[in-house]
Amino acid sequence: MKELIILSGKGGTGKTSLTACFASLARPAVLADCDVDAANLHLILAPETERCETFSAGREAHVRADACRGCGRCVAACRFDAMRLAGLHGTATVDPLGCEGCGVCAFVCPTDAIAFKERMVGSVMTSRTRCGAMAHARLTPGSDNSGKLVSWVRQQARRLSVEEKCQLVLIDGPPGLACPTMAALAGCSHALIVIEPTMSGLHDLDRILALTQHFEVSTSVCVNKWDIDAEKSVAVERRVRAAGGHFAGRVRYDSGVTQAQMRARTAVEDDTASAADIRSVWRQVAGQIAMAETGY
Ligand code: SF4
Ligand code: SF4
User: Fold this and answer.
1) Among 69, 94, 99, 116, residue to substitute to test ligand 1 (most atoms within 8 Å of Cβ)
2) 102 Cβ inside 6 Å of ligand 2
3) Under CATH, what is the fold of the domain 65-112?
4) What CATH number was assigned to the domain covering residues 2-56+122-294?
5) 193 CB under 6 A from ligand 2?
6) For the whole model, what pTM was predicted?
7) Which residues make Cβ contacts (< 8 Å) with residue 119, sequence separation at least 6?
8) What pLDDT digit, counting tens, does each position of 194-214 carry?
9) Domain coordinates in residue numbering, the chain
């Protein structure tokens, strides 16, 4: 089983659109939407959910009101300003968004009034799409455990690939270089970086290439909307080749992509103006994965 991850330096570069197009070209593939902070692959592939459950990670403090004497020690001890007293000598209450679950409040409480419970950080789903099975998740607003959630999504996608006897997992990766990206990238067979021809795109390119090199994941790069700045597109291509990466091609700007997605269709399925470019990039990337498999 091979895992191809599609990455970008920031949101809005066309990463998810390309992932959805690859899904319609690679059929069958198992899909993993690891962009859990802003999951939107489901908007294009319209999955039918087969399994959905809540996901918890970490813990948060809770005060047993009947045991609290309102001494305020927990308020003074909390470095995250998450503990409050309701009125003078009132009962302590916890701000769940501020609580880091460190346990200091419970340590200083003289009446043992503070307990901990699992923190719900989101929901996790496995679904069926017209392109194959899909693992995805939704992070609760304000939650910050998306690294763990990403690992769950990958795990489920691997399980689905075994069940479905499917040789390819397509991962819509999180944008940027934070913990969720590392959780999504580590151990992948190949990465495709989607870059826009801008100054910030060039800057992102260097940083993501360094990251994929660090994780020893072979990497291709494509330029999306290359025709908004042809010179910078050439600069991207030169920089990729100079860094020893594989340049997978260019995709033109195409307003038809959004039109297709509004109908929950991919650019390839609707054969919009950029469909041929996307097919070409897919052939290049698939070739790289096949080469890695055979050692040539
Ligand atoms: S330290 Fe314990 S008893 Fe004192 S206010 Fe906090 S929860 Fe209540
Ligand atoms: S567990 Fe830590 S962060 Fe949460 S309320 Fe207690 S002291 Fe504050």
Assistant:
1) 69
2) yes
3) Alpha-Beta Plaits (3.30.70)
4) 3.40.50.300
5) no
6) 0.86
7) 56, 57, 58, 59, 60, 96, 101, 143, 145
8) 999 999 999 999 999 999 999
9) 2-56+122-294, 65-112
